[in-house]
Design brief:
Radius of gyration of chain A: 22 Å
Helix content of chain A: 55-70%
Structural class of chain B: mainly alpha
Number of strands of chain B: 0
Strand order of the largest sheet of chain A: 4-5-6
Order of helices and strands of chain B: HHHHHHHHH
Number of strands of chain A: 7
Largest sheet of chain A: 3 strands, antiparallel
Radius of gyration of chain B: 16 Å
Helix content of chain B: over 70%
Oligomer: heterodimer
Largest interface: A-B, 33 and 25 residues
Distance between the termini of chain B: 18 Å
Distance between the termini of chain A: 72 Å
């Protein structure tokens, strides 16, 4: 018998295949174990980062660069301020009353920047600046959460005015204009936003569930149809659907409204986007797999995965059409949350560091915001409290 | 396409029966000795593929992998296998080494493509679909090895055609993986 050349080649092919796959596409998906308690501690750490570094006037520390030991100098962002405040109210709603004073202080800073014409309300950096739809939407969402958590109805008329502003930004096809101009007292035509449409959709859905007889559902349904069908094409984003966690919040909020198969299909595809993202990121653990799965997204991005997965998971629990992916959604949510818990900085004694989620040596307030929101819902899943409210 | 149909189609395409039969040129199709070699090699390969397929769940747990991620890896390997059959089909082998059974069962059948396809079938469609897909695919191989008497150019292009279809299916599997939670 001669040298078994074919057998040697066969062994080599197998060796290259196994090693190549294990270092790249089939690298282990590392999901650190978590419990409801450990997730809660991490959520408290993130919220503590936000409020410990909050300024007396209600603004947050916007970001922190470990290399320079200070902020990066990036300009403050009103929408992110509103989103972070909303996230604190989510935590208050989940039972952490201690963050209410800080959230109210941040709300006060926003309300000091209120603009409007008496009928509608919005929030802008200055009385003459254009007001963003997203800021108004996230203020409204925060106010609804605050109302649910405290029972305080003091801001109800403001909420309705914010709702009227959002409806006024809506075009007949359900798309939303991004800016309202105090100078003209009207929406700025033709300018839309990939982010703000979903934020406004969620806010309108919450308004309808708060006041079911006031007609907020009609504009919400119109915008949901737009978002689920043509928004991504019109905004020219790829891959589709754009991983819009705000739309996921809205879908979950509208789960009892009678979602169409188109909406459920959209929810399924959204869930897959975040499932893939968590699976891919969980394979990034240093070495060659780290290179293959680089770069790591910013913490805010990773936090939105948790929010989106939690919302679609909640929808999957409630809607039999998504029941087949409920377990997988829960698995990805706990995997992603476990990784964020493991990545959280702790024990340095520096309030600008502890509790933060740093990527590339930098953290930004919305990193803590989005991860905090995602962890709140992960804790609910792990503690058996149930799907998101 | 259902998970079952996809599993059977993927296994059947990736083993590439006409390509394997063309490569196993040394065998005298009519002889009982050759038929015994085919029976032993195909039975052994079938048993191994079924066994690996049935172990997919524990293997994925041990390797810290989810089913959709396995599917993505399988898609790439199946696609590369298809590309190999399309671009450079295994030429006719006149002298098997180290043995006819090893050459057929190992080097032609138990290649990474069929193994990953068997695992993906079990992960996606369940153990029964995995078993059925392996048996169906291996039946086509056995039949081709015993009865195929196609002129070489025809067998060559049949192998290439199946290779091309395998690439198309691999792309579909990869896209499906990227759309799975």
């Amino acid at each position: 018998m001669g040298r078994p050349r074919r057998l040697v080649t066969w062994v080599l092919v197998w060796a290259v295949t196994v090693v190549g796959l294990r270092l790249t596409l089939l690298a282990p998906e590392v999901c650190p174990p978590i419990t409801a308690d450990s997730v809660h501690r991490a959520a408290v750490g993130a919220a503590d980062w936000i409020v410990t570094n909050q300024f007396d006037d209600g603004r947050y520390l916007y970001d922190w660069d470990l290399d320079v030991g200070g902020p990066t100098g990036a300009p403050y962002n009103l929408v992110r301020h509103a989103g972070t405040t909303m996230s604190l109210y989510q935590f208050v709603l989940a039972g952490e009353d201690r963050y209410l004073p800080a959230a109210d202080r941040a709300l006060g800073w926003l309300l000091d920047r209120q603009v409007g014409d008496g009928t509608i309300a919005a929030v802008a950096p200055s009385p003459t600046s254009r007001a963003k739809l997203g800021t108004a939407a996230l203020v409204a969402v925060g106010l609804v959460h605050r109302r649910q958590a405290t029972g305080d109805t003091a801001h109800d008329e403001l909420l309705r005015a914010l709702g009227r502003m959002m409806v006024g930004q809506q075009r007949p096809d359900g798309s939303m204009l991004n800016f309202w101009d105090p100078g003209t007292g009207a929406p700025v035509p033709e300018e839309t936003s990939l982010f703000a449409t979903g934020e406004a959709l969620w806010a309108l859905a919450l308004l309808h569930n708060t006041w079911p007889d006031e007609g907020w559902d009609e504009p919400a349904r119109r915008t949901l149809q737009y978002v689920a069908t043509v928004r991504d094409e019109e905004e020219d984003v790829w891959p589709r659907p754009w991983a819009d966690q705000w739309a996921a919040y809205a879908l979950n909020e509208m789960r009892a409204w009678g979602l169409s198969d188109t909406h459920v299909s959209y929810a399924r595809r959204l869930g897959a986007q975040w499932g893939v993202a968590v699976r891919w990121e969980s394979q990034r653990n240093g070495g060659i797999d780290g290179l293959v799965h680089a770069p790591e997204p910013v913490a805010a991005g990773q936090g939105t995965w948790l929010e989106g997965l939690a919302m679609i998971h909640g929808l999957a629990i409630a809607d039999a059409r998504l029941a087949d992916v409920a377990d997988d959604l829960g698995d990805r949510l706990t995997c992603g949350a476990g990784r964020m818990v493991a990545k959280q900085r702790d024990g340095t004694g520096d309030p600008a560091v502890d509790g933060g989620f740093f990527v590339g040596g930098v953290t930004r307030v919305d990193g803590q915001q989005h991860v905090l929101s995602g962890l709140i819902f992960t804790e609910r899943l792990l503690s058996g409290t149930g799907s998101p409210p | 396409m259902s998970d079952w149909a996809a599993a059977v189609l993927a296994m059947t395409l990736v083993v590439n029966a006409p390509g394997v039969a063309r490569a196993a040129a040394w065998g005298d199709r009519a002889s009982s000795r050759w038929q015994a070699v085919v029976a032993r090699a195909v039975a052994a390969a079938t048993a191994v593929l079924v066994a690996i397929g049935l172990l997919t769940g524990p293997l994925l747990d041990a390797l810290d992998l989810s089913t959709p991620t396995l599917r993505l890896g399988a898609a790439v390997v199946i696609g590369l296998t298809g590309a190999k059959w399309f671009l450079r089909p295994t030429p006719p082998i006149e002298t098997p080494d180290p043995s006819p059974e090893a050459t057929l069962g190992l080097t032609l059948l138990l290649t990474p493509g069929p193994v990953l396809a068997a695992m993906a079938a079990n992960g996606d469609a369940g153990w029964l679909a995995g078993v059925v897909s392996v048996i169906a695919a291996m039946a086509t191989v056995a039949a081709a090895l015993v009865v195929q008497r196609l002129p070489d150019p025809v067998a060559l292009w049949a192998a290439r055609l199946l290779g091309a279809l395998t690439i198309v299916l691999a792309v579909a599997i990869g896209i499906d993986s990227a759309r799975s939670v």
